[in-house]
Specification:
There is one protein chain. This protein is α+β, with helices and mostly antiparallel strands. 36% of the residues lie in helices and 17% in strands. It is built from 13 helices and 13 strands. The protein has helices at residues 2-11, 15-36, 42-53, 81-84, 158-161, 181-186, 198-202, 204-215, 295-302, 318-322, 329-342, 347-359, 366-391, and strands at 105-106, 110-115, 120-128, 167-170, 193-196, 221-229, 233-235, 238-240, 245-246, 251-252, 256-265, 268-278, 316-317. It has a seven-stranded mixed β-sheet with strand order 1-2-3-6-11-12-13, with helices on both faces. A two-stranded antiparallel sheet has the order 4-5. Strand 2 and strand 3 (120-128) form a beta hairpin. The longest helix has 26 residues, at 366-391. The radius of gyration is 31 Å and the shape is globular.
């Protein structure tokens, strides 16, 4: 047959092109009528059979996207798939679908998404301004407590942390909320807390939080997303995710913590930086730049898209633009002494810490002096009251 067509084509120039056109045209015409003619349903039936074999095709390409920042999707309608599904077995929804945690819980100055399995937040979002980080709110009036907005069986408790070897690490720090006591109190809900290495919490992570507060002096708005990560390690040539759980509620201990920082001001270019800090003691010599990662990498690690309404191309690198310089060791030592003064349980201990500062040739600044004087008055009042009661 093929030889005959070639022989015929040699006698009649262009005949091959005509035959090809006729064959393709006839095929397209057949497909058209088979897919549009209601009386001829064989092709339609074949399509339905293909879809039945490939469940992911059922709801169309509009639900399969790669980058939700750039592609318009119907992700907000996923919860209503039952309404558009072509599943004839409606009884599958008789007792409802497995229920997850609320998308988010909003407080006075932070918003969080809670992980009911790990008993920690997945992410915590804050918006800082220079006015919010100043004020009279005092963490001495705040207490760690379970978040009653979380179902009881998914809550973490203080008992989970006691004697665990891990501290209760804020994701939204108390000091970011000095403008309002209620806002500060809300940061002590355990929904905002992760098991954190004590040294990391009190030193390197604290310095990073302080750096974020310092950004409010240079930018009118600072947006921060913080949370835990559970990253794999290489073991015997395999990637293994391994983490401790603590307490009767099995609160997950993250291997790392992350923080995404976005700062903007009308007079400056918006800046953006993402950081992943190991949940362990970190040397004072380590620069913040050592822990900076591409935001896309952090999104892959966490499974989250940060600031989805932001055009990333319009933001410059935070560390390149602002320097990412954290507080000095001398300043951090002064803060540590301030903590010890604030937590002194009696006048003798208070005076001992004060004298120790002098012996170490540390000149207290106004902030530390204010802490000392305030705590001194409080302890004197308490001790005077105890004397009165004993005399009665």
């Amino acid at each position: 047959m093929a030889a005959w067509l070639r022989q015929l084509g040699s006698r009649f120039s262009g005949l091959g092109n005509v035959v090809t056109a006729l064959i393709v045209g006839a095929g397209l015409t057949k497909i058209y009528y088979e897919t549009t003619d209601s009386e001829n349903v064989s092709t339609q039936k074949q399509i339905q059979e293909i879809i039945a074999r490939h469940d992911h095709l059922k709801h169309g390409n509009h639900l399969r996207t790669i980058d939700p920042r750039q592609v318009k999707t119907n992700l907000d309608k996923l919860d209503t798939l039952a309404e558009i599904a072509d599943n004839e077995d409606d009884n599958v929804f008789k007792y409802g679908l497995p229920k997850r945690a609320p998308d988010y819980i909003r407080y006075r100055n932070h918003v969080l998404c809670y992980d009911q399995a790990k008993k920690t937040p997945r992410w915590v979002l804050e918006h800082l301004t220079r006015d919010k980080v100043k004020g009279e709110a005092d963490r001495a009036h705040s207490t760690f407590k379970p978040d009653l907005n979380i179902p009881a069986r998914f809550q973490s408790k203080n008992d989970d942390y006691w004697d665990s070897g891990w501290s209760r690490g804020h994701m939204a720090p108390a000091s970011n909320n000095k403008f309002n006591q209620e806002a500060m109190d809300a940061t002590f809900f355990l929904s905002n807390i992760v098991p954190q290495d004590l040294d990391n919490n009190a030193n390197y992570w604290y310095r990073l939080e302080a750096y974020c507060r310092g950004l409010t002096k240079r930018y009118s708005s600072v947006y921060i997303v913080s949370g835990p990560l559970y990253l794999p390690k290489q073991e015997d040539g395999k990637k293994i995710v391994k983490y401790e759980v603590i307490g009767t509620n099995n609160v997950a201990v993250p291997t790392h913590l992350y923080k995404v920082i976005l700062a903007e001001d009308e007079s400056k270019e918006t800046v953006l930086g993402a950081f992943v800090i190991p949940n362990e003691p970190v040397s004072f010599e380590r620069k913040l730049q050592d822990f900076q990662v591409p935001l896309e990498d952090l999104e892959r690690f966490s499974g989250l898209v940060f600031f989805p309404a932001l055009n990333y191309g319009k933001a410059s690198d935070l560390c390149f633009t602002d320097g990412c310089k954290m507080m000095s060791k001398e300043r951090m030592d002064m803060i540590v002494y301030g903590r010890r003064l604030r937590n002194a349980e009696n006048s003798d201990l208070l005076q001992k810490v004060w004298e120790e500062m002098k012996e170490n040739k540390m000149a207290p600044d106004k902030f530390t002096i204010d802490i000392y004087e305030r705590r001194k008055r409080e302890l004197q009042e308490q001790e005077t009251e105890v004397v009165k009661i004993s005399e009665e």
